[in-house]
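It is worth pausing here to work through a concrete case rather than discussing structure prediction in the abstract. The textbook approach is simple: state the sequence, then state the predicted structure, then interpret. We follow exactly that order.
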Amino acid sequence: MLPLDRNTPTALADQIELRLRERIANRQLPPAARLPSIRQLAAQLAVSPNTVVTAYDRLMALGLIESRGTAGYFVRETRHTEWPDAVALEAGEEQDGVWLAQQAHDLRAGVLQASSGALPPAWLEDGVPAAAVQRGLARSNAGMASRCPPQGLPELRERIAMVLRGMGIAVDAGRILTTYGGTHAIDLICRAFLQPGDTVLVEDPGYFLMFERLRKDGVRIVPVQRRPDGIDLEQLEAACREHHPRLLFIQTVLHNPTGWTSTAANLHKVLVLAQQHGFLIAEDDVQGHFHPGHVTRLANLSGLERVIYYSSFCKALSPALRIGYVAAEPTLLKALMREKIYSILSTPALNEYVLLEVLAAGRWRKHLDRLNAKLLAARHASARQLSSAGLLLDHPGEGGLFLWASVPEDVDLNLLVQDAYRNQILLVRGSTFRANQQADAHIRFNVAFSQHARLGDYLRERLQSLAGARAVLARASAVAGQ
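Step two, the predicted structure:
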């Protein structure tokens, strides 16, 4: 039995995590040992199952335990590889965009993904059960010999259209194209509609991989400031007059990295400017699944006129399926499908059949409801912890994965993120999300990982240490000036 103290201010989930960490460290729980199920441990300790879930999630984030599906939770075995260190290839330099994207997929043991753009694997385990994979494959008469139409399976596109109509976006299956995810959609848009020398407007801050993708194509990037209520309309109008853009990339709901959502009034003005100046709009709604309420999108207001809307099931449902989609007018969609055929020909039929099974069985909405409930609880816990550590939360959004927090003045953010990574905590500085890499005092925090006490302890100690050093320097300067 794990001893819990209900008279201390330390949360019960924190106590459970600490006790299990101690037992794993001193090998009272050896590698491969099976832990009690969530319900068993909750009953033993007289706590809610959610309390145990929180503790187990944190231990998995640390790489100390692992989930083996229906078999339960086990202490993770330390695996030694005979491969040389050179096999651990880095695609980029530390803290650049490609390197950061790689960290979220490598999931190196022991590294706390505090600034990751992904959810913990354990949060997604119930989204696509093994039975759904079997039933999905059974939908095809050809089995593993199935081919997928380049536009996507007609039945799946109709299911996706039903999801969009439920969000108020008037669309049918003929206006849907499946992709490998949101990043693939960006690639297709770039291939289909941009040429070297074209001007593209982007939100600043924004999605760092998209900036690098545009630069690779020789496209001229013009950043426009993102505000809590949406893109800065004065800057946007001035940029339109001066640069005559071909396209605007914009994320209207739960913007990455800030978590902000655009108002309907702001979006209406964006559409007016697009009409006046003749540019296309690529609306990224990859984070929109995590919004707790009903919101307005450009795709709602425009009826897809001049708007290319794209989203993905990778982040909220399954990164293993790698399925996203684009919705657009037929003339625009045709150009996108040509580029899809040129580059990859088609998405895998197996992935599409499995997603079709999940949507048809009604699992998607139930899974999303459970996920958003966990995100809301993690959001509150992370906000409290970051604030108590000394960070300032700038206009916290209405939900979702991210909190956009700034460090105190005079903190060397570059040194902080480097030191954090040496301590196996991944933090991403604000400048990474700026189109021109200018200095920014913010850090993007993923609420699923940032509720972890280990992060709070680290930030509190480091920021207090820096504050003490600044105070000593200030006193020394004052004495020298006397």
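Step three, interpretation. Residues 130-361 form a domain with the Aspartate Aminotransferase; domain 2 fold (CATH 3.40.640.10). The longest helix spans residues 453-481.
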